[in-house]
Amino acid sequence: MSESMDRVTGLLLAGGQAKRMGSINKGAVQLNDRPFAELVIGNLSKQVDDIVISANEYASYFKPFGFEVIKDKREGFLGPLAGIESAFIEIPDIQWLFCATVDTPFFPGDLVSVLLKKTKNNNRLCVMPVHNGRRYPLHSLIHASLLPSLSTFLDSGERAVGYWLKKCGVLEVEVEAPFPAFENINTLEELSLLKRNTK
């Protein structure tokens, strides 16, 4: 957990349409008898001060988890940036927002503290993990002061998370972690592979 002056809110991004998996609720997908949502929330709860869930059409599924559930304020499923913007707007006391996708349950257990330390040491307002040469913008730590920039970016018709973060001067941080740290599930084949490797 962070000090009070650096409170971190975890944002579970679960509002996508999951078209490559037949437009299902990814949060309810089972991995070794536990739903993705439960796995990610369990990981998040050990690293952040509070949690908010961006769920859109599956909001009713996530309410029993006991955290605030929000929907995009913009219409049309504009992607994860719309969920991030809505979290900042709906919960105005957020200081730092750490993003976590509902289909990536095994991100490192110290990731938030590592990213927060990097922001402070380098005087940055956003920081993004890099693992094995691949960037993970949807596991970034973002300061609330970037909300105006985010809203302007979305107003312009842009949607790319990595592009917006780059415009904000994101710090990229190499993170070492064993498999399946940043493995995410977009297809049934990927789910089957992860099940075989995480028993």
From TrEMBL:
This protein's domain notes: The N-terminal domain determines nucleotide recognition and specific binding, while the C-terminal domain determines the specific binding to the target protein.
Essential cofactor(s): Mg(2+)
Signal peptide location: none
Pfam families in the record: NTP_transf_3
Function: Transfers a GMP moiety from GTP to Mo-molybdopterin (Mo-MPT) cofactor (Moco or molybdenum cofactor) to form Mo-molybdopterin guanine dinucleotide (Mo-MGD) cofactor.
Classification lineage: Bacteria, Pseudomonadati, Pseudomonadota, Betaproteobacteria, Burkholderiales
Enzyme class (EC, first level): transferase
Reactions that this protein is recorded to catalyse: Mo-molybdopterin + GTP + H(+) = Mo-molybdopterin guanine dinucleotide + diphosphate
SUPFAM superfamilies with a match to the protein in the record: Nucleotide-diphospho-sugar transferases (SSF53448)
Family: Belongs to the MobA family.
Primary localization: cytoplasm
Keywords attached to this entry: Cytoplasm, GTP-binding, Magnesium, Metal-binding, Molybdenum cofactor biosynthesis, Nucleotide-binding, Nucleotidyltransferase, Transferase
Subcellular location: Cytoplasm
HAMAP family: MobA
EC number annotated for this UniProt entry: 2.7.7.77
GO BP annotation list: bis(molybdopterin guanine dinucleotide)molybdenum biosynthetic process
GO MF: GTP binding; metal ion binding; molybdenum cofactor guanylyltransferase activity
Subunit structure: Monomer.
Amino-acid positions noted as binding GTP in the UniProt annotation, renumbered to this chain: L13, A14, G15, K26, D72, D103
Binding site for Mg(2+): D103
CDD domains in the record: MobA (cd02503)
MobA-like NTP transferase domain ranges (all copies): 10-161
Keyword Transferase: yes
Protein name (database record): Molybdenum cofactor guanylyltransferase
